[in-house]
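It is time I had a proper look at our fold encoding. Can you supply me with one protein entry, sequence and fold together? It will help me judge whether the discrete encoding reads sensibly. Leave the record below and I will have a look:
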Amino acid sequence: MRRAFTCTSATWLSLVLAVVPALAGPPSTSAPAPSATEPLAVLLQRVRHAPGNEAACAQLARSCAAQHAWADITRELAPLERRLAPRGTLLLAQAARQQGEPERALATLRRALRRYPRHEALWTALAEQLLDEGRYGQALDVLDEADKKLGTCSTRRHFDAARAYFGLGQWLGRTRLRRVPGGRAGRFVDGWLLVSLREPPDTFLCCPRRSALYELRRALDGGCRRPEALGMFASIWKRLGKPEVGLALLRDREDAWLPGATPELLTAAAELALDAGRPAEFLRYSRLRARKSPHRQAEILSGAFVQAAELYNQRGDGTMYRELLSRAVELRPDEVPLLAKLADALWQAGNRTEAAQQYRKILQLDPDYPDRLRILPRLDPHPPPP
């Protein structure tokens, strides 16, 4: 069982439209194939006449996605619930949730599973609604039951289990050190995931199935390409103090997540690169993040240049430190603390004339600058001899 030790939203429409056969028997053929241009009222009439017709329910779902006619769906489909095809039931549950009645949605899904106990999309909808509501233990119970009814665990259910364990804070679960001659980190051995090599030789830190990392690796190895999965993997390794491992995975699978990356995922990728000490990759992800928010582009890029500059400065690379600070100032020329940082860097590098120019800008912007007594003597880089 996946039941946990004590210690973001479901894609409903994709479930409604998933091509999964109704297990109660072949769909009714009494209703002709629906047209993509038919109005909602006509589609509702088709479903009323043939509630077990999957094609009619799917077309109705597509129409509802555009019109958000959730009250109409509830009114028309609720009396037909016991005869609805699985896709119709998913749509009815979605309508309940959209109308702010999550418990009614859960009850609808549970009743449907009594009729269609081997319908994977129904199990997925139930588990993911519980996950979205933070009811992680209940979600694990549902996933356990789904495994028993359906047999093998799908990639999607592995990812949902990872979400549950991650929500419970069980990133690695109850770890154990095990000696595995010839083992390699990232492999599964006897129900354990080899996480990292330790001492003595051939000894590995291992995590069990009841953990986010184990289930997540199963999902990724099974072909899961969801950006949320990659982001979770990166987050776990960051929390474990090994951001370079998570960064390597993001780099290797950029084709899966980068084209449609959200600002949040790009921010996470940038932070991971910074923690891993990779300023060039940090800046690349930061630039992509800035493009997602044109109204904040200067702010985001300027902040990224400063963070990368500090990393180079810690490494003793003063040239890159000053260069990146200059780029930040170009984007935000009126930000006094940023001007002061650049001016001090130039002064310490011996570029007294350029530093004096920056100090003058500071006093022009803020005549009462708190540190003015320190910088006043530096306004003239070539004071006359005494």
